[in-house]
From TrEMBL:
It is a multi-pass membrane protein. The lineage of its organism: Bacteria, Bacillati, Actinomycetota, Actinomycetes, Kitasatosporales. InterPro entries: FAD-bd_8 (IPR013112), FAD-bd_FR_type (IPR017927), Fe3_Rdtase_TM_dom (IPR013130), FNR_nucleotide-bd (IPR039261), MRET (IPR050415), OxRdtase_FAD/NAD-bd (IPR001433), Riboflavin_synthase-like_b-brl (IPR017938). It comes from Streptomyces chartreusis NRRL 3882. The gene is hmp_1. One of its GO terms (molecular function) is oxidoreductase activity. It holds the Pfam family FAD_binding_8. It is found in: Membrane. This is 3-ketosteroid-9-alpha-hydroxylase reductase subunit.
C-alpha cells in the first residue's frame, strides 16, 4: 500500500547525539590518562625499568577499571546517545584490557624487584605480600578479576544463566575496593603527593557515585514515584502476550518509542528475575505496553500475571529512538517479535516511512493489524514478507526492489540476530551509510 504525503525538508543537525556521547566518554578517559601520566612522572622513576613499566601498567589498569564503572552506570545522558548494547560491549572489551594490564603490572613488578634481589619471582611475590602494605589485597583483587574474566569469556558466558553470571560478576566490586586501597597505600604516585591522592579519590568517587546513582537511586526513585502495576494481560496468539502497565505521573517518565525497560513483576516466584522487553506502543503518558514472545519460563509466566501485580521497572534504556534520525524519510525492518519497538517507532515517526515485516508465516505476524492501521493513518508503506529463512528474502536485490531510495533513508532494524546480521550486510552492499543505520541488541552487564 502506498500513500503520498508532503515530506518535511531534511534537517541539518549539528553534532549527532551518538558522536557527542562517544566523544564525551573518550574525552573523559583521555583527560584522566593525561593527568595520571603527569602525576606518575612527577613522582619520579625507579632505577629498574621493569618496575617503572609495572607501576604504569597498574595505574592505567586501575583507571580503566574506574572507566568500566562509568560504562555500566546506566546514566541516562550516555544511554540515550550511545545505547546500552554498545556501552556493554565497550565494558566487556575494557574488562579484558584491565585484566591484561593488571597481569602485566604483577609480572613487571615481581620480576623487577627480583632483578634487584637474590629471590626468585615466586619467593619475591611472597616477600612483597608479607612486607608491603596492600599487596596481599591486590593479589586477592587480581584473583577475583581473573575469575570474572574467565566466566565472561564467550564460551563460558553462553553456558551460564544470566543470574549466575551476574552474581559472580558482583564480586568485581570487592576487587575494586581491594585494588583501590592497595594503590593509595603502596602506590608511589599517591604516597608522594597529596594532590595526586586527592585526585585519585575524586576519580573513584565519581565512578562509584555514578554506579550508585544510575543503578540504585534513579530506579528506586522512579518506581516510588510512578508505582507501576499491571492493568491487563492480553494474549496476541498462542505464544505472544501483551502486558499493559499503568502508574502515577507517567507523563513525566522520560520514555520514548523504541526504548526498553528491565521489568520485574513482583510475584512470589518471579520478583528476583529482570528481563529486557521493549515498549510495543509509543508512551502516551497513561499506559506502558510490552509484547513478549514465550522463550522460557520467565516469559511464559507473563500470561498468568494478575491485574494489580506490582511492577519494578528499570529504565527507560536504549538509543533506538528518533533522537538519532539523520534523514526526513525512514525504513523500518522488523523480524518476528522484533516488531515491538518498530511498531512503537512507527507511531512516533514523522515523514514518509516504509515498513518491512519479515516472518515465517502469516500467523507469526504479531501486531500486524495494528501496523496496518498505523500505516494507513500515517501514509506509510507496509510490506509483509513471509517464507523460510532460505532463500534470503531481504537480500540486497529484494530490498532495493521494495525500497528504491533506501540509501536516502534512515533504517531502523530489529529482529533475531541471524536476520539482523544478514540485513546489515545487505544494507552495506546497497551503500546505506552507517550513520543512517540504527539497531540495538539486548545485552546486559554488571
Amino acid at each position: 500500500m502506498t500513500t503520498l504525503q508532503e515530506r518535511p525538508a531534511a534537517s541539518r543537525p549539528g553534532v549527532r547525539p551518538g558522536v557527542l556521547g562517544r566523544t564525551g566518554l573518550y574525552a573523559v578517559l583521555l583527560a584522566n590518562a593525561v593527568v595520571v601520566t603527569v602525576f606518575f612522572v612527577q613522582a619520579g622513576f625507579a632505577s629498574n625499568t621493569l618496575i617503572v613499566l609495572g607501576r604504569l601498567a597498574g595505574l592505567y589498569g586501575a583507571l580503566l577499571m574506574a572507566f568500566q564503572l562509568l560504562l555500566v552506570a546506566r546514566l541516562p545522558w550516555f544511554d540515550r546517545r550511545i545505547g546500552m548494547d554498545r556501552l556493554t560491549s565497550w565494558h566487556r572489551w575494557t574488562g579484558f584490557s584491565v585484566l591484561w594490564l593488571l597481569l602485566a603490572h604483577v609480572v613487571f613488578i615481581v620480576f623487577g624487584y627480583a632483578q634487584s634481589s637474590s629471590l626468585d619471582p615466586v619467593n619475591q611475590l611472597v616477600d612483597l605480600a608479607e612486607t608491603v602494605e596492600g599487596v596481599l589485597r591486590a593479589i586477592t583483587a587480581l584473583a577475583i578479576i581473573i575469575v570474572v574474566g574467565v566466566v565472561s569469556a564467550r564460551y563460558a558466558r553462553r553456558r551460564l544463566a544470566y543470574e549466575t553470571w551476574h552474581f559472580i560478576h558482583l564480586y568485581t566490586y570487592v576487587a575494586v575496593v581491594l585494588a583501590f586501597t592497595h594503590q593509595v597505600a603502596a602506590g608511589t604516585t599517591f604516597t608522594s603527593s597529596s594532590v595526586a591522592r586527592t585526585y585519585w579519590y575524586a576519580v573513584w568517587g565519581v565512578a562509584l557515585a555514578s554506579v550508585f546513582a544510575g543503578r540504585l537511586v534513579l530506579p528506586l526513585w522512579r518506581n516510588l514515584r510512578h508505582r507501576l502495576r499491571v492493568t491487563a494481560v492480553v494474549p496476541e496468539n498462542d505464544d505472544v502476550v501483551s502486558v499493559y502497565v499503568t502508574g502515577r505521573d507517567l507523563d513525566r517518565l522520560p520514555a520514548r518509542a523504541g526504548q526498553f525497560f528491565l521489568w520485574r513483576f513482583l510475584t512470589r516466584d518471579r520478583w528476583w528475575q529482570a528481563n529486557p522487553f521493549s515498549l510495543s506502543a509509543a508512551p502516551d503518558g497513561r499506559t506502558l505496553r510490552l509484547t513478549v514472545k514465550r522463550a522460557g519460563d520467565g516469559s511464559a509466566a507473563l500470561r498468568h500475571l494478575k491485574a494489580g501485580t506490582r511492577v519494578f521497572a528499570e529504565g527507560p534504556y536504549g538509543a533506538f529512538t528518533t533522537l538519532h534520525r539523520t534523514r526526513p524519510d525512514a525504513l523500518l525492518i522488523a523480524g518476528g517479535v522484533g516488531v515491538t519497538p518498530i511498531r512503537a517507532l512507527l507511531e512516533e515517526l514523522h515523514g514518509h516511512a516504509v515498513v518491512i515485516y519479515r516472518v515465517a508465516t502469516d500467523r507469526d505476524a504479531v501486531l500486524y493489524d495494528e501496523l496496518r492501521e498505523l500505516a494507513l493513518a500515517k501514509g506509510a508503506e507496509l510490506h509483509l514478507v513471509t517464507g523460510p529463512p532460505v532463500p534470503d528474502r531481504l537480500a540486497p536485490r529484494e530490498l532495493a526492489r521494495l525500497v528504491p531510495d533506501i540509501a536516502d533513508r534512515d533504517v531502523y532494524l530489529c529482529g533475531p540476530p541471524p536476520m539482523m546480521n544478514a540485513v546489515l550486510g545487505s544494507l552495506r552492499e546497497l551503500g546505506v551509510p552507517r550513520t543512517q543505520t540504527h539497531f540495538e541488541r539486548f545485552s546486559l552487564a554488571g
